[in-house]
Write a structure and sequence with these properties.
Elements lengths: L4 H19 L12 H5 L3 E6 L16 H12 L3 E6 L2 H9 L5 E3 L12 E3 L4 E4 L5 E4 L2 E3 L3 H16 L4
Parallel strand pairs: 1-2, 1-3
Antiparallel strand pairs: 4-7, 5-6
Length: 165
């Protein structure tokens, strides 16, 4: 089926108008349906942490260790303060699902069982387990908050390249 020149112009015009109207909708990809990134920027990063002797110590007033340092630096990059919540993985994931946390860290690995309850970053660092296995560390974020996840992953990747993890 051959289209006449007039039909081709009409089809091209229709496609151009469709593209413009979609662009005008203000849709951004990746997006945060619950607005996590926008809420954290210039505000407060609500970080849930669980103790892990290799990367997260929660025995003092403020968490310490390589992951706590990374979370503080990420918050600084967003001009945000950090509000810490210490708990078990299960309690923190429940709080994440209920909208009370923005991320979870504490020695979580890419083998985490929470993939159906939270967004998982790409592995950003490796540690050696006591049995000699190499473990790949990840952090958890609210499901579907892809702009926030993307910003966190980019930050962690840049930090790893700089040797800061």
């Amino acid at each position: 089926m051959r289209l006449s020149a007039r039909m081709r112009v009409a089809v091209v015009t229709l496609l151009a108008l469709s593209s413009l109207s979609l662009a005008g909708c203000g849709a951004q990809i990746p997006a945060d349906p619950s607005g996590t990134l926008a809420a954290v920027e210039g505000g407060t990063l609500r970080a849930g942490v669980t103790p892990n002797g290799r990367v997260m110590d929660v025995s003092d007033d403020e968490p310490s260790g390589s992951e706590a340092d990374a979370i503080r630096a990420f918050a600084d990059s967003l001009d945000a303060d950090v509000e810490w919540t210490v708990g078990s993985e299960e309690a923190l994931v429940r709080e994440l699902e209920n909208g009370g946390l923005d991320l979870i860290a504490g020695g979580l690995t890419d083998q985490t069982p929470w993939t159906d309850k939270a967004g998982v970053t790409r592995p950003y660092a490796e540690i050696t387990a006591q049995d000699g296995r190499t473990l790949k560390l990840v952090m958890l974020v609210p499901l579907g908050e892809n702009a926030f996840l993307s910003r966190l992953e980019t930050f962690l990747s840049e930090r790893a390249k700089a040797g800061a993890l």
